[in-house]
Fold each of these.
Amino acid sequence: MMRAFLLATTLLAAAPAFAQDLAPDAAALKAHVQFLASDAMRGRDTGSPEIAIAEQYVAAQMLAAGLKPGGTNGSWLQPVPLVSFASADHGSFVIKRGDVATPLEWGVDYFGRANPHIAKVSLSAPVVFAGYGVVDKASGYDDYKGLDVKGKIVAVLRDAPKVIASSDARAHLGQPDEQARTAAAHGAIGVILIEGNGRHAVFPFAATKPFWNNPAMTWSNGEAGGPVAPAFAYLGMDGAAKLFAGTKLKWDEILAADKAGTKLPHGALGITVEATANTEIKKVAGNNVAGVLEGTDLRQEYVVISAHLDHVGVGKPDATGDTIYNGAMDNAVGTAAMLEVAKRFVAEGKKPRRSILFVAVTAEEKGLVGSEYFAANPTVPKGSIVADVNLDMPILTYKFEDLVAIGADHSSVGAIVAQAAASEGVKVVPDPLPQENFFVRSDHYSFVKAGIPAVSLDLGPGGPGAAAAMEFLAKHYHQPSDHVDLIDWTQGLRFVKLNFAIASALANADERPTWNKGDFFGMLYKGPMAK
Amino acid sequence: MFRYTAPLALAALLALPAAAQDHAAVPPLAAPLPTAEKNAIINAELPADQSAMKAHVMFLASDPMKGREAGTNEFDIAAQYVASQFYSAGLRPAGDEGSFLQKVPLISVKPAGKGSMKLTPKKGAATDLVFGEDYYPGANAQALDYSVTAPVVFVGYGIVGLGRDDYKGVDVKGKIVVFFPGAPNDFPPEERAHLSGGPAKAAIAMKKGAIGYITLESPRTGRGSFPFAALGAFWDRPRVGWANKDGTGHVASASTPGLGMLSKAGAAKLFEGSKAKWADVLKLAEDDKAVFKAVQLPGTLTVGLKTEFTPLPSYNVAGLLKGSDPVLSKEIVVLSAHLDHIGVGKPNAFGDTINNGAMDNAVGIASLIEEAKRFKASGAAPKRSILFLAVTAEEKGLVGADYYANNPTLPKGDLVANVNLDMPIINYKFEDIVPFGAAHSTIGQIATKAAAEVGVTVSPDSRPDEAFFVRSDHYRFVQQGIPSIFLWPGERGPGKAGVDAFLANNYHKPSDELVQTPAIDWESGVRFVDVNYRIARAIADGDQKPMWNKGDFFGTVFGGAMAK
């Protein structure tokens, strides 16, 4: 599970190990996690020697399970051209009003932003404030209406307008990458991101300082979805006040409208910004691992079962001195469940109608990069993937009563999942934590962006679920204590069984899944839509 | 498979295994295949049992595993893999503290500095022997700084046994013994291989009360004997051993450490003033069957050694399948295979630096895991318990197995047999098997019978000069008195060509990969697992535990249970 923002969390020692004799299928599930989350695997960080070993492990397990290679060139692997990028220096940011130049102060007013495609950004252009920089065809919302931004720099609040009802759509539209893409589509040459009220509340500008040159990752052919105007700077509220000073727009009024959820004042500011942003760009090796179980009459269509294999590696020691972020729950157990689902299909002896493509993706923790690459460059014919079911960090610490299918509201996959889960006695319930923006934080989102109906499965809040999830997120999520001992294997097996039922239902249904009629993502990414 | 080397580390000097040197007919190493073609071989469809075996090898011998050298993180990851596979196969942990892993305190030991050897004659001034001309020092793993002064006794080959007594007529108590390396060629090959080695001679010297030993440069070359000058490049090469609980290095013959090697010139100085003339001894030594007269040399020798240690912690992996018989389940049959290989080395002709060790010994480990699954799948536990043991540092000199055999996680007296899997060459359809060690114990008959059940005959060792019997891990169990066997597919039919090709082109090379030439035959792999399983099963279910044959050399030397 990709981290959304950085929060201080309580550090606690790992729960005591519990020794138990397990049934062979539970032992098989546990064995994968024991291996992948062992200290020797050093947290499977993208680009590390250990993730390369984890890839080989998954390939070998797929072979043993009876799958066929689903990577490139008849192999199990799909090389992903990963690129790591980080701010190389502080850059510069100067506001020009006629002959008066006002330099902003790095770390106080602004931070430079790294750009994966352009090592040296150097711009000088007039600035237009474009509200949230959002265009939503479905609702007709358009921040660019009446604005001429061709050849100019746009400044936007780093958020999405509250008038867009769907939290999933807001989470999608309010991302810097989307805002930059929209700006480029309108002819802008650069983007200034500005801290708004929403962002300020969860992760204030000043708190981002220690992370100013943390590397981020993407893949090298550019991101899916067209050209990007570099978002070269991020302005805090103090910097924003300086940007708007003396222009016809008032920063106070913009903030007030943002708070109230009303239309933001917008337009050309009558100033020029001269700025530079320098990025250190490095290539990183990584692979997705893919195995196919061939279907019968509908075998040309593929249901993807995905799980990310990477975690966050070695980091700061916790209170016990442990530095290895083992990632048992996140996401060794998701990967293990995927492998066990594959074994179940083979053991059952009855092939599904559609083919099933099992994919262990890389660099999820770096921003869903491996899955984005796979969805944009699938190893099977484009258009042949009919659905993705993603397994990411099921919190298997309690006896679950229900299931959350993130993204279920958008397509017929939701109903199929609900029906299959019901057959296993499990109810599907709405996302209890919409504010966590899980919809854009796990790999199914990459498939969504390729127009493919997709869901991520999480265990639900029923019974002890809500408390258990909060406990895990507070104490173990992205901590060295995310150990194998946290997991209840009986629940693990139930989760495998449930996923098997869901994958079977998707693979055997008469019709391929469709987006709900008029769905925001279905329309945006031109997926197959219900009539 | 441990490369056979001289008593002191000489690995690089012997760039080819002995068997490879006279096989001009073997075709040279083929260039790597194009990716798609290679993938077509990797992914040729196989029955489930063959895929299962291949999957282990595909993982363990993959490039990211970097050749699994003991002491590397990749080895530790391999150990985690085996532990998780054992767990998944239903074995119970039999390592330290309820885990599958046994910590092995490996140490790398080497001489620190040139040491010193000083000769004090009965009369006259002491003379220092010259480093590199007269001597090269040994390393005493028991002490960082070690010195000893004692009279010196020449004892021929230093062998007592097989009708030979090189100590006849001398008292070596409290003295340093010097001897020629090697053993007469007319000894039976396995006995000869054992007795040629420094450790066996040290054990004899210790029994006789000597307090140190020195090897002499021999006029002959061959097993254990090499020119003194060759040692120049290797004398301080580190050797791997294991540490005692007190942190000192374990030396089997603790009170009789190896002190170094003397050149012919150095030996001549030692013999000065003796009634036995060095020139005569040297002349006599040209005949391998020479009978030397043991003699105390004049004066005393003072040897000073400084030794350097580096810890290299590693693991054995141990999983137990509990036996079903209320009485016999206390007895344990050990199935072993080494997990380590030799890591990353020099690039080959195609720029490959990773010695993947697919045949050596990912195939052995895969067999071990698949046999565990077979025992489980049979639905009937064997009468005796079975310990599945993946050992470390075999390639460093059978060190992990030695550690286990000396420090077992289960009562030593309960270990009744060892069946070892090391580099079974499965690049052809085998017709027979060679059970190394079969001639020494009742396991020989058990193996013959079990193999016959599936139409496989047993052949004698066709490469006795390779001395495979002392070159793999079962030898460490033999040294603890435990009857052992080590199995290879035989060389009938296509066997000889397959073995020759592997030893010449792939053994300890980057080309020992999942895809190699000749190709690994997974059907043979599964058959090999089957035969090995049947033998292990027969041992575990037998009415009698295995015994050394009456009067057997190894059973006698190491004091094991012997047939009447």
Note: Residues 5-24 of chain B have pLDDT under 50 and may be disordered.
Amino acid sequence: MSATEAQKHVLVVDDEPEIGEALRAYLERDGYGVTVCTTRADAMAQYERLKPDMMVLDITLPDGSGLDVLRAAQENDRRTPAIMLTARGEEIDRIVGLELGADDYITKPFSPREVVARVRAVIRRTERPAGEAPHAASNVIRVGELEVDIGAHEVRVGGKPADVTATEFRLLKIFAENSGQTFTRAALLDAMHDDGSIFERTLDRHINNLRKKIEPDANNPHYIITVYGVGYKMRHA
Amino acid sequence: MLDEAAAQLATLTRKHEHLTGSDAATSRTRHDAGNALAAVRASLEAITDGVLEPTPTRLANIARSLETARNLLG
């Protein structure tokens, strides 16, 4: 991280102190500011106080669920990117977390190096690179009032930013690059190079969430059209 | 001590990966063992990478978490 780049702050929430300590050491070495919490209550308080740039959240905490912290963070005006730490066998929590807007998940026992690499990747893809013009025309796909800025990883509706998750952006990018083409759910998952973290039924949920953010009327979609018995397509650009 | 801990971690991680079953007790074991193994792996890697010092407290914590995982996974 360069000296001129503003330091990003990462909130790490895990009830195992050794995990928090190791993640702190790696992240600080990479130039991040780090706050470690071991309980849900402390995490909620620190989230409100710090407004971190990124969160690494364990799901199971001694006094509740890390999903509560994630939910609070997504309801905030500024969506906070988050990576969930889950145990094997916690698929339901993982699905709920992704539906709530988490950007990624890592299964325990994990390598702390991998967590740091994922933190770096999520921060990189959720922020516009410094100096990049907000409207790099060559990389923007327009469908009516909808603009999908591939380079800047941004979505705008009528010129106003729409705060979409990483998964929603991937979906929208596929639709926008192939407007008019109908996708089955399976074909969408293939096109997203999904690693199995998204299932066909949760795909519908992601699309519904996306519609709420980009459609003038989510109940009567204008951009992402349901093709009954087949799947979805985006209206022609 | 670190090499021995790494070998034990590898053995216990394999056992953890092969732990099957969806009943509440197995889920709990899988979760708790996963936490203990994650703690060991995080500390071991950080010490090996020179990110953390191998203090007596950290080494004792690694031994304690390995013991926890061993008790859970048999």
Note: The helical segments of chain B are 2-17, 24-48, 56-73.
Amino acid sequence: MLFNSFHFIVFFPIVAAIYFGMPHRFRWMLLLVASYYFYMCWRPEYIILIVLSTFVDFWVARKIEDAPHPGHKKILLLISLFVNFGLLFTFKYFNFVTTSLNDVFSAIHAPMSIPALDVLLPVGISFYTFQEVSYVIDVYRGQLPAQRHFGIFAVYVSFFPQLVAGPIERSGKLMPQFFERHAFDPHAAIMGLRLILWGMCKKVVVADNLATVVDRIYQMPDAYSGPALALGTACFAFQIYCDFAGYSDIALGTAQIMGFRLMRNFDRPYRSRSIGEFWQRWHISLSTWFRDYVYIPLGGNRVAIPRLYLNIMIVFGISGLWHGANWTFLIWGLLHGSYYVIGSLTARPRAALVRLIQLDKAPRVHAVLQAVVVFVIVNFAWIFFRAPNVQTAWTVISRLPIGWDVVFHVGWNELAYAMSMLTLAPLGDGVKYGLVLSAYILLVLAYDTLSRHDDWSAAIHKYPTPIRWAAYAVITIAILNLGVTKVVPFQYFQF
Amino acid sequence: MVVAGADVTSITKWSFFGRLIIFILLVCILQAVYFLFFSSSIYEHQRSYFFDPNLACPQQILYFGDSTVVYRCDPDGPSLFEAVKERLGPQWSIGQVAHPAYSLTQYETFCRYLSKHDSRPEAVIIPINLRSFTTGWDMRPEWQFQRETVYALYDSFLYRVFFTPLTIFKAPQFNLSPIEAGTFQRLPVYKGTELVGTVKEFDVSEVEDLSQQFVFRYMQSIKSSDRKAQSLKCLARLGRQMNLKVIFYITPIDYETGIAELGDAFEQQITMNIETLQALAANEGSAIFDLSRLLSSDMFCHESAHPNEHVTSEGMAILAEEVAKVTRAAMDEMQMLHQASDLSRLHQ
């Protein structure tokens, strides 16, 4: 079930109404049934994977807690990791590995071929797997008692607002909330509805419309030169942000209405002045997961410099592969890792240069320049993230320098052509529609990126009622009329 | 004085729901205002784009059609519709509602629309393209024309106001993209009833094996339960209920090349498919004129290596003559029936 669907608009109020209308002790049952239904709307049979991993991790965590010897605990942890990552590998990475091996066999003319599995990638498998693994590791480390209530644990794994695209919640934070008695709180409901509204706006109006531009350009990169490809990539940067941040906002808002507090997943990432800061603002729940369960166990900062850089590259490489079983994602992750390492290595000379050209005396200009540089290099990496394969990414990169003279000498024709694709409204080619849509998208992006407030719900709260209502109405009418009519699934579902 | 944010912290449960209801009503009103004033140009654009004026104000005869009706092999020559119109002469007014990829599903929708309105034609001409029953046409995502379907079936002010929101949020019956491209590529292709591959294997732009393209385009066995066959049945029934003469004909196909490529199997399959359709129509009291074998191979417009149903000027003249003849006969029959019923009313 998609958040931006009629199905969900009917489903959620019913669930919320029953939730607040029933006794607290039965609420976990409702949430479990609702969450499984939510997931089964996609492919009913894949619920088996969630149920299986839930049983295994519930059992393993309890056994770890009860195990007398550290060796036993370790074996149990390995069982859990084997099951969780085994499922993830089978459904997400097996075909990638076999295809890559078959390519190698073919290259060396070896008469071998490993057959591929005819399976679909289960939606959200990376999210719920990581959530469960974090729970088992926390129990193993003794940071958390094992959950004794199977129903609560099952709801923790499958809680529908964040089941298929996060945020990846920590058990210590989310699980206790299922024991809390939530009464309907109008204030929380208003805050939640505001988040849902803003999330829908980002997803339905901005991301889905930008997707039409991006898809056209990336389907045939050969047909475009530098300006259009740069524009397409920049559009993708905002598409993926609005898609994922929009989903997260809706998830947070949905949970908040029912009284649950989920962690924020995005904080205006394109304001970042360094790659380190970017990853503190982008997909925060994943970044902190990798920090706590991969980076720190590898030694964290307390290792020699070469090892530190190696650790960083490992973390970013795994992070890339987490996003998808493709070489393009690995390259994307490694690019971010190398940005981080290069940024760290060049910190001193860059600081000296800033002092030399007296940029330190204009901190705002310095900050803007840094943000622009980070945005450009992040965009370069997005090429690999968006391209279906390395070859396409290379085509885009090799064509990027071509055709800029059109912009500077002949005019903005090509850019205007690319921009005009924005006016390809879902209902036809109305110019008025296109202008309204483009202006609206730019307004939303400008507000979301440049706003000093990191929380639009709190920001709008400061204004008088008529202004708030006017803003709600304009956003709602835009969502109802400026979206696209074809199905544009949430980008992060595939991860 | 309105204090920023003050009302939110002091809000009660019931005032929250009261405000929510007021806001929903406000949005409904604004949506209607938006629709009536701001989106009027878009609306007009929609209407002209996917809703032919010929359907709203029909002529005596409506010619529904696909590319066979609108295509011109000779750019300066007439289309089939124009050729038929010319042959029918000024005695009857005729309009077309056509798109290169329309098929029986859309014609059924249009007839349902007509059945809800008083302004109707006396007859409709419906070409049945045998290719439209195959997976490659029937299930092709971009040829589903859901917008026309939804718009024609829910043609009321309220639906028009909320048409766009309902399609954006994929309300049941308002999903404009029911088939995804990936799903389409994985669909089966049949030769008769035998599974011979998937769409992905056959749906290629460059043809290496013409016989495979004949399989892909014509060799699927038509069953009476197929959705387009059901549309045919429904069209015949609707025609009878509306007292509307429905003139069905099977569009010509490159029969000779088909036999050359696939042998007798091609002839047998085509004959079987046509018999299935004729039997379905006959059950509802309609006839289908079989023009599938009307033209020889050289009368098809071979602008691509793929087999198609587009015809040359020479072929079109023959086809137009046949369609006009059938139509004239049907219209004469209708007129005689009208006269007979007028007479009997007069006698009573």
Note: Residues 422-429 of chain A have pLDDT under 50 and may be disordered.
